[in-house]
Amino acid sequence: MDTTMSQTQRQTSSLVPMVIVGILFFMFGFVTWLNGSLIPFLQIACELTHMQAYLVTMAFYISYTVMALPMSLILRRTGYRKGMMLGLVIMAVGALIFIPAAEFRTFSVFLFGLFVLGTGLTILQTASNPYIVHIGPHETAAVRISIMGLMNKGAGIVAPLVFTAFILSDMSQFSESAMASMSAVEKGIALDELSARLVTPYLLMAAMLIVLAAFVHFSPLPEIELEDEGANGAKGVLEHPRLILGVLALFFYVGVEVIAGDTIGLFGKDMGVENFGQLTSYTMVFMVAAYMVGMVVIPRWIKQETALIISAVLGIVLSVMVMTASGDSYSVWNALFTWSGAPAIPNAVLFIALLGFANALVWPAIWPMALSGLGALTSTGSALLIMAISGGAIFPFLYGAVADTSGDAQSAYWVMIPCYLFILFYALKGHKLTSWR
Q1: Cβ–Cβ under 8 Å, residues 33 and 25
Q2: What angle do CA 8, 148, 338 make, to 5 degrees?
Q3: By the 8 A CB rule, do 262 and 396 touch?
Q4: How do residues 371-397 score in pLDDT, each as one tens digit?
Q5: Domains of the chain in sequence order
Q6: What pTM was computed for the model?
């Protein structure tokens, strides 16, 4: 009887923090997955090549590497709750930087704003992921992270739709043929008008982030206490191979996740897909579907490790299918998804979206595996895992460089295959290693 009451109280005490942190996950998912629509938008507005356009992901995700350890030091001083609030305020500053960037149509200022947004997200991620792991029983940590993933990817469905509705409407006047018929002065005026469409939405975003920071400040979000890791924390984590290999696996995973979510818009635009600004939503829908499947079957029917193996293998198969599929045929969509009522997309684009299904369960699997047994080193271990998000900076940019160099954006998706192979290694062996010997 007492045990039951204790478990009920623990579940109740975890519910409110999960709701609050879930709202945070939705918000930084919304900001993160706007990039997929922002890339083709800025390519038009700032007249960029593929490689230059993918500097958007570079500037955004590289902040995780640059700022993760400094943010973990700040968290030790502020605590998790104040750290989350600080992250939201920094994000608001990043959103405000978009206003002069849009007014002057200056790509470098856009990149700086993205870096500041990423810095705010870094402290939010560094605080919220271990918070979710430790707010309840360790054996259900993957389930809690999956729920947060649903919030994050749910925002990824909404963000491109909102961006398209408010910013990418009536884009026919900015087509290549329309722009080619304009004089240099007319073209500059048209692009200035296009860029200015970002001002009001990002001003509203900044206001929402400030309101959310105030909400966190006045919310009943409890602080969690982790052991002091001492002066040798950074050195100590190097003795844990499952963590170090987990960091590498997460690095490769975020790379392929961002490629699937952020390159699909520009790839679809090149393929002539009219609703290219919405294509990130397709990837996110499949990610949400995979999260829901995972929450039903794991661990009831399959182990988390098995799910990770399936994810890696499916990623490899879909990568090959992306490279070899037709950009003109809609046969797979017509056979499987016509019932949805969503606009049809070519096979090659659809297979990129389906990578969302392969990717969804990788993040919630790697985090508990990598942090297992760290104890007092959890904070530093979490910071290293957050630094691995820089894979989202490297691999889309690498993809863009290969696409520009080869002149074939479709075959350039081979860069994902080595990433999935390493994730497969971690699922089969890497997470089992307890020492380097």
Answers
A1: no
A2: 120
A3: yes
A4: 887 777 776 787 788 788 889 889 998
A5: 7-220+233-432 (1.20.1250.20)
A6: 0.78
